[in-house]
């Protein structure tokens, strides 16, 4: 029997993979307009979420339902055998026996990879602690490709906020680094700056969100301060209001510039920004369904 195809890290994709997945996501978006594409009839998605989630879990579940499949979902870990001490290696063997594919969110970096090692079916990493969130990065990339000719023209992307613990940033930075002509700025206080493992020589680190960065960024990618991951709460309180996007700030983006954010937000984007043409975060979240349809189809060989 062949090994299951897992989605664990943005590292696993080359440009050809990204082209194929973006094209498939566009096809899925068209299919969604007609109600879906029932290519996964008779198949089951298991959702094992050990951390809170709204978008990732529900968009995976919606994606499977739109593909004609069904779902089993572990939505509250306090009702899971994890509280009795069950380890992920055992849980995944069992859930992987019930379901044809498992989407998983774990508290610790590397845990999705560990689960995949023991899983008889594909594992989709829906966020592993402060590690990665590759399926979010793919929907972020899909959103960017809808507004910009990435790889064809120069593009400046500025990540702003909690870049140390923000797993969506880690995965998206890896994807963007594959494309010609993408410049990346990392804007954050040093205590939550991007870890060196994600930094390229051509990237720039900034501590302040200057007008110069705002006016030269085609994409600003804001993030929430990940309070739950700070080891020192004093550090959190020092940086929690470091960046708050107001309409006046967002106006400084260049013509056609977009503000993305994986959501949820925790005060870092004022609601007055929501109706501005630069605000792209709700569209971004909705793109999670077609992209995750494409990913489920990919790992199930459909
Ligand atoms: N973007 C994201 O991962 O959102 P949820 O935590 O709601 O899944």
Provide structural commentary.
- With 302 residues, the protein is of the alpha/beta class.
- It folds into two domains: 10-132 and 287-299, 3-Layer(aba) Sandwich (Rossmann fold); 135-285, Rossmann fold (3-Layer(aba) Sandwich), CATH 3.40.50.
- The protein has eleven helices and nine strands.
- Strand 5, helix 6 (167-176) and strand 6 (182-187) form a beta-alpha-beta unit.
- Helix 1 (15-33) crosses helix 5, helix 1 crosses helix 11 (288-299) and helix 2 (55-66) crosses helix 11 (288-299).
- The mean pLDDT is 96.
- The structure holds phosphoric acid mono(formamide)ester.
Short description:
The chain has about 300 residues and is an alpha/beta fold.
Provide the CATH topology of the largest domain. Rossmann fold
**Number of self-contained structural domains:** 2
Task: Tell me the CATH superfamily of the largest domain.
Answer: Aspartate/ornithine carbamoyltransferase
Main beta sheet: strand number and arrangement?
Answer: 5 strands, parallel
Q: What best-fitting shape do the alpha-carbon axes yield?
A: globular
Radius of gyration: 19 Å
CATH class of the largest domain: Alpha Beta
The structural class is: alpha/beta
Helix and strand pattern: HEHEHEHEHEHEEHEHHEHH
The tally of helices reads: 11
User: Overall pLDDT, averaged?
Assistant: 96
Ends distance: 17 Å
């Amino acid at each position: 029997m062949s090994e299951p195809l897992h989605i664990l890290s943005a590292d696993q994709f080359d440009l050809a993979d990204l082209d194929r997945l973006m094209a498939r996501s566009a096809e899925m978006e068209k299919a969604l307009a007609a109600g879906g594409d029932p290519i996964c009839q008779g198949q089951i998605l298991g959702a094992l979420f050990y951390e809170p989630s709204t978008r990732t879990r529900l968009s995976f579940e919606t994606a499977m339902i739109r593909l004609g499949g069904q779902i089993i979902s572990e939505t509250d870990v306090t009702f899971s055998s994890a509280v009795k001490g069950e380890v992920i290696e055992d849980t995944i063997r069992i859930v992987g026996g019930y379901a044809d594919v498992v989407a998983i969110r774990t508290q610790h970096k590397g845990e999705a990879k560990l689960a995949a090692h023991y899983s008889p079916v594909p594992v989709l990493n829906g966020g592993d602690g402060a590690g990665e969130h590759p399926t979010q990065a793919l929907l972020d990339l899909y959103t960017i490709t809808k507004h910009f000719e990435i790889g064809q023209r120069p593009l400046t992307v500025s990540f702003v906020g909690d870049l140390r613990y923000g797993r969506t940033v880690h995965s998206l930075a890896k994807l963007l680094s594959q494309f010609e002509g993408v410049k990346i700025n990392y804007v954050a206080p040093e205590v939550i700056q991007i870890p060196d493992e994600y930094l390229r020589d051509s990237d720039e680190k900034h501590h302040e969100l200057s007008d110069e960065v705002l006016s030269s960024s085609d994409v600003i990618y804001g993030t929430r301060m990940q309070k739950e991951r700070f080891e020192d709460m004093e550090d959190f309180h020092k940086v929690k209001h470091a960046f708050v996007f107001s309409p006046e700030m967002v106006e400084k983006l260049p013509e056609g510039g977009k503000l993305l954010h994986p959501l949820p937000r925790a005060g870092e984007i004022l609601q007055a920004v929501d109706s501005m043409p630069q605000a792209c975060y709700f569209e971004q979240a909705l793109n999670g369904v077609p992209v995750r349809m494409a990913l489920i189809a990919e790992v199930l060989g459909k």
